[in-house]
Design brief:
By secondary structure, this protein is an alpha+beta fold. Helices cover about 40% and strands about 25% of the residues. The chain contains nine helices and twelve strands. Strands 1, 2, 3, 4, 5, 6 and 7 form a seven-stranded mixed β-sheet that branches. A five-stranded mixed β-sheet has the order 9-10-8-11-12. The longest helix has 23 residues. The relative contact order is 0.16.
């Protein structure tokens, strides 16, 4: 039997500003993060559909429940092509850390769908891709906004309000954004609930004010990105982290990395994503400055870290080093 194969890829994402506040109608800003990616290969085999990934090696129908969103992603793509019983092997390789708010589940679904469509030599419209990924993301997240699917499949920063269309915008910024991973799994549900709990107490008015301030800061950050004002962006990031901490969605590990980066000269630093673990980001005007606080993080035995360079226009090519989180906008 002649081998037929196809590849599909997708990348990670980070939330620059607006996490948690977006749940209450405030704006958020997300950036694509191609330095970490998922690659999926599909090839023909004689036996039943098989899946090989870091969590499972075996027949697709026997995958554990924890991989249900992956099973649905595969099934949805094949059913849409009227190929539900395809004899194929799907191999998944990912450098996106799971449960860090970097779009891991959406990226896997995007890459799987692309690979399957290419294997069957079928065109895949973006609208179809997003619809199919949304099906599996409902299994992974319950009621997804669609932001992760859009970010992991696209190359443009997005401005977003809940219930409204995503608005792409161009970067016009010189600076270096460093991503740090605490090594602790994020606790998004608990963080979301902590804010909801505050809104049900005498802290309601203060909490609402903080949520609105986060929205204003997201607007400020967008303007800073478009006007090449890294100082203003850094100030917005610092204020946002303070508000997120007051809302109860940070933790000691995140706060320590943020403080260390600021002491090392970062213009701004904050958590990114769901909080209570996961990742944080820090901004520097120069590569030398970024390296300085990366060096301090190494002394803290940081789990993973890296940089990406903000500069005018988004390229499709990652600038790689030994660090898996290095990406270049140039």
């Amino acid at each position: 039997m002649d081998e037929i194969s196809a590849l599909g890829r997708a990348h990670g994402k980070i939330i620059l500003m607006g996490e948690h506040a977006v749940v209450y109608g405030e704006p958020s800003i997300a950036l694509p993060f191609p330095a970490v990616e998922v690659q999926v290969s599909v090839k023909n085999i004689d036996g039943p559909l098989r899946v090989d990934c870091s969590f499972y090696h075996g027949i697709a129908d026997e995958m554990p429940e924890v991989l249900e969103s992956l099973r649905i992603a595969i099934q949805s793509a094949l059913t849409s092509l009227d190929k539900p019983y395809a004899h194929i092997a799907i191999e998944i390789e990912s450098s996106i850390p799971p449960e860090r708010g970097m779009g891991s589940s959406a990226a896997v679904a995007v890459a799987v769908t692309r690979a399957i469509y290419r294997y069957f030599n079928h065109d895949l419209e973006m609208s179809t891709l997003l619809d199919l990924v949304h099906i599996s993301e409902k299994i992974a997240h319950g009621n997804p906004s669609g932001l992760d699917a859009a970010m992991t499949s696209g190359n443009t920063p997005l401005y977003y309000r809940k219930g409204q269309p995503f608005i792409p915008f161009q970067l016009n910024m010189n600076g270096y954004l460093v991503v740090g991973d605490t090594g602790v799994t994020g606790q998004t549900k608990e963080a979301v609930q902590s804010i909801a709990d505050k809104l049900a107490t005498t802290e309601k008015e203060t909490t609402q004010k903080r949520i609105h301030e986060l929205g204003v800061l997201a607007e400020d950050a967008k303007k800073a990105l478009q006007k090449d004002n890294p100082v203003a962006l850094g100030e917005a990031m610092n204020h946002a982290h303070l508000l997120l901490s007051q809302l109860g969605v940070s933790n000691d590990e995140l706060n320590h990395l943020v403080l260390t980066a600021k002491r090392a000269g970062a213009l701004g630093a904050k958590l990114t994503g769901g909080g209570r673990g996961g990742c944080m980001i820090a901004l520097s005007k120069s590569a030398a400055g970024a390296k300085k606080f990366k060096k301090h993080w190494k002394m803290l035995v940081l789990y993973k870290h890296g940089t990406y360079h903000l500069n005018r226009r988004l390229t499709n090519e990652a600038s790689r080093s030994s660090c898996p989180y290095k990406y270049c906008f140039n």
